């Protein structure tokens, strides 16, 4: 009789309680991060520091004016792909979240590899 009670009463009740606990403790869909790297005049990449590491994203719309001087973004920073972020709770921008790094040096080298400073001297020489 104990096995029948265990199989048909206790196990389904424990399963329901566990499932309810997982549902109530779901992570939030919006996270807040600090912008630590952005070079608005010539590069569409930005690096956001979050509690779990560094997120590299690309500004899809080229909203350099919105991004310039911004310090904080809020949105779904932990899902790769196209995301809509709130910038300083004033404006929104569309980005492509591309990489996650836990190490600052790796995020910095990825950013530096994508955002090279323009070579003004080479452009000047090439124009003659």
Key descriptive features of the protein:
single chain; 128 residues; alpha+beta; six-stranded antiparallel β-barrel; 6 strands; 35% helix; elongated
Question: Mind explaining what this structure looks like?
Answer:
The protein is of the alpha+beta class and 128 residues long. It has a domain at 31-115. Helices cover 35% and strands 34% of the residues. It is built from 4 helices and 6 strands; from the N terminus they run αβββαβββαα. It has helices spanning 2-24, 64-67, 104-114, 120-126, and strands at residues 31-38, 45-50, 53-59, 72-75, 81-87, 91-101. The chain has a 6-stranded antiparallel β-barrel with strand order 1-2-3-6-5-4. A hairpin with a 5-residue loop joins strand 4 and strand 5 (81-87). 18% of the residues are buried. The model has no long low-confidence stretch (mean pLDDT 79).
Relative strand content: 25-35%
**What is the mean pLDDT?**
79
Shape: elongated
Elements, N to C (H/E): HEEEHEEEHH
Biggest sheet strand order reads 1-2-3-6-5-4
What is the rounded distance between the termini?
Answer: 95 Å
Unreliable runs:
none
C-alpha-based Rg, rounded: 23 Å
Q: Count the DSSP helices.
A: 4
């Amino acid at each position: 009789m104990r096995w029948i009670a265990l199989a048909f009463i206790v196990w389904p009740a424990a399963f329901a309680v566990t499932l309810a606990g997982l549902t109530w403790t779901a992570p939030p869909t919006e996270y807040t991060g600090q912008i630590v790297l952005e070079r608005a005049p010539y590069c569409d990449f930005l690096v956001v520091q979050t509690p779990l590491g560094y997120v590299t994203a690309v500004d899809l719309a080229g909203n350099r004016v919105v991004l310039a001087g911004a310090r904080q973004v809020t949105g779904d920073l932990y899902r790769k792909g196209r995301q809509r972020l709130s910038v300083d709770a004033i404006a929104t921008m569309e980005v492509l979240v591309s990489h996650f790094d836990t190490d600052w040096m790796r995020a910095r080298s990825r950013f530096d590899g994508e955002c090279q400073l323009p070579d003004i001297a080479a452009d000047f020489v090439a124009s003659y």
